[in-house]
Design a protein that fits this description.
single chain, alpha+beta, about 70 residues
Length: about 70
């Protein structure tokens, strides 16, 4: 497995720490999960008509579109 050294701003490091704490994971695991989402977004961006979105599941199990993630 490869190792990677990153320099993060204090704001990004603090945000990463909070995400890790909330999810009971390490910062390394949080970064791995973030990369997995980035890879999915990048893959879908290559397909015509596809984009990454945020949805909410309603009580009746229907889905409500909240928004589209852009800039990835």
């Amino acid at each position: 497995m490869a190792n990677l050294t990153l320099e993060l701003s204090d704001d990004i490091d603090n945000c990463l720490s909070q995400i890790a704490i909330r999810n009971s994971i390490t910062k390394a695991e949080a970064i791995k999960r973030a990369f997995a989402l980035l890879a999915i977004a990048d893959n879908q961006k290559q397909r015509a008509g596809c984009s990454l979105g945020i949805i909410r599941e309603r009580d009746d199990h229907t889905l409500e579109i909240i928004g589209r993630v852009t800039g990835l």
